[in-house]
Amino acid sequence: MESVALHHRSIRRFKPIAVDYQALEAVAQATSSSEFLQSFTMIRITAPTLRAKIAKISGSAVLAQPNGELFIFVIDTSRDIHLTDPASDCHNYTNWNAFLAGAFDATLAAQNVLACAERSGLGGVMLGSILNDPQQMIDLLHLPRYTFPLLGLIVGVPAEDPQRKPRLPQALVVSENTYPAFDAEAMAHYDQAVSDYYANRASGARQESFTSLVQQHLTADQHHRDEIGAILKAQGFNLPQA
Ligand SMILES: Cc1cc2nc3c(=O)[nH]c(=O)nc-3n(C[C@H](O)[C@H](O)[C@H](O)COP(=O)(O)O)c2cc1C
Fold first, then answer.
1. Does some domain include residue 215?
2. pLDDT in tens, 183-228
3. Where in this chain does the record put each Nitroreductase domain (predicted)?
C-alpha cells in the first residue's frame, strides 16, 4: 500500500515557490465522474484582490499568506442544461441526483488534486470555510444558475511539518457486512489520544478531546450555512425535503 496517503496532514503554510498548477488541473479533470457528466468546474484564483475577499469569507489563516495555488471547486450542471433543448424539462439536471453528482465530482476532483500534490511532495488543505458566505462566493466568481461553490483547496510547497492528527479507532469506522457496534472503551482511548495530540502539538496547543470537539460543534455559529438551502434554490436546484 502506498504510504504517502497514510501520512496525510493538512498543510497551511507554504513557501514562495511556484507549483505546476496545469498538471493539477489536468488531474482534476482525469478524476472519475458520476455518469460521465463531469458536473464540476475548477476555478483558479490568481487575482490578489479576489483572493483577499475569499480570505475574508473563509477567515482561515492559510489565505492570509500569499503563497500556494487556490482553487475553488464548483458543483456545475449549467453546462448540461446549456446543451439541452431550452424547452425541455431540465429536472434531471436540477434534482437531488444531479446535485449529488456535482458534489461527488467536485469533491473527488479536489481530493484527487490534493492526493496527487502530496505524492509529488507538495501539501495543501481543503477549505470548506468558503461556505461561510456562499452568496458572496457566487457573486465574486460570477457563478451562473445551476452552479454552487462547494469547496476550496489550496496547494503549495510546505513551509511547515505538522504532526498527524490521530484518527478514530478502526473498529468504530471500518466494518464487515454490518454496521459496527459503538465501542465506548475504544472511544475513551481515542479521546485520550486526541487530548495528547492537542496538548503536545507544536503550534496551537490546547485542551481538547474528540468528544469535546463534537459537543462544541453543536453550538458553532453556522448562520450563513443555514442559508445554503435557500441559495441552492435561487441557483436553480430543486431539492425538496421528503
Ligand atoms: C470538506 C473539508 C473542508 C475543510 N475545510 C477546512 C477549512 O476551511 N479550513 C481549514 O483550516 N481546514 C479545513 N479542512 C481540513 C480539516 O480541518 C482537516 O482535514 C482535519 O482537521 C484533519 O486534519 P488533517 O487533514 O491534518 O489530518 C477541511 C477538510 C475537509 C475534508
1. no
2. 999 999 999 999 999 999 988 899 999 999 999 999 998 888 899 9
3. 7-156
